[in-house]
Amino acid sequence: MPPLLFNLALIWLAAIVLITIISVIRAESLLSRLLAADMLTLILVAVLVLFAQREGSAYYLDAALILALLSFVGVIAAGRYYRSGSPF
User: Fold this and answer.
1) pLDDT tens across 8-67, in order?
2) Rounded-to-integer distance, Cα 56 and Cα 14, Å
3) What three-state secondary structure class fits 87?
């Protein structure tokens, strides 16, 4: 990946992270905050994938996969807790 393209992608993702953090803070309902936090983890996964491409290391991909799996389980548990009062 050319360095200019990597830098543009990183700047774009940083701007999206800032917008998402603002939406997490300003969200009125719990479900909106949950959705914004899930979107934030998705963007962080994209940043880790970019770093894996740049460094040529699979360790960042492993971290991205673990983060995605933890985020998925967390969102499912939080949604079930919000709906029925217990996560399981």
Assistant:
1) 999 999 999 999 999 989 988 888 888 898 999 999 999 999 999 988 888 999 999 999
2) 21
3) coil
Both ends of the chain: CA-CA distance in Å? 44
CA quadruple 60, 61, 62, 68: dihedral sign = positive
- Mark out the alpha helices in 1-88 (DSSP H runs): 3-26, 30-55, 59-84
Phi, psi of 86 (to 5 degrees): -140, 140
Is residue 33 classed exposed, middle or buried when 0-12, 13-18 and 19+ CB atoms within 10 A define those classes?
Answer: middle
What's at 6, amino acid-wise? F
Residue whose pair of structure tokens reads 């985020």 in the numeric block: 71
C-beta separation of 47 from 10 below 8 A = yes
Residue type, 65: L
- Closest-CA residue to 50 (of 78, 88, 12): 12
